Amino acid sequence: xxxxxxxxxxxxxxxxxxxxxxxxxxxxxxxxxxxxxxxxxxxxxxxxxxxxxxxxxxxxxxxxxxxxxxxxxxxxxxxxxxxxxxxxxxxxxxxxxxxxxxxxxxxxxxxxxxxxxxxxxxxxxxxxxxxxxxxxxxxxxxxxxxxxxxxxxxxxxxxxxxxxxxxxxxxxxxxxxxxxxxxxxxxxxxxxxxxxxxxxxxxxxxxxxxxxxxxxxxxxxxxxxxxxxxxxxxxxxxxxxxxxxxxxxxxxxxxxxxxxxxxxxxxxxxxxxxxx
Length: 276
Prior knowledge:
The protein is an alpha/beta fold. It has nine helices and eleven strands. α7 runs parallel beside α8 (232-245).
């Protein structure tokens, strides 16, 4: 597709540092993209002694790459260098393939000690649970590492199976307000009739996105955007969030395409929409 050009403007709403590679790739393919993060991610400031040690658990579950990276920052502030080595008896689980790759890149465990949904499965807690069920007899204590809040579904399934579950918040999410210049660029694109394609990758991001479009006067124009999301749950949250902004309580069915969360699949999906 290199050398083609598209009239569409693509909004990349993932947190800072998560958009650059995809932005470069789209630009190379002739697609104009704008990085407009809707969430800031920051490690939670906690006393080092209060950070759970992986040695105290049979399994550590990371719900995202942010959860992993922020936990490692917290954990590695504990103790001496020897205590920072990942205990070989502690297995790791990841909710999705991108998080699994981050675990392997960090050198925590080998692939045979990592539990993760298959590539052709949904990258979510439900798929991970199907794999964890075959290992529950080998475990007694599980640590779930996440943001300051999150779904309780997986933790509840583990507890129902008789396991002790500890939930640790390694990072905080804060709404990132779009700068006026970025909002103007979106307004100009809308005014000129350009198609807008918007990437949303989390339910928390949907709410922060809704806050931004309302703050910057992009409501109800945003109901005509085409959305690329990574899970039906994100699509559902988007529909209900934009419905809530309408005086009638309903904006009509949004244009949504669901794709796998890996950058290759996101790029392919966005380019197919932008260049058609």
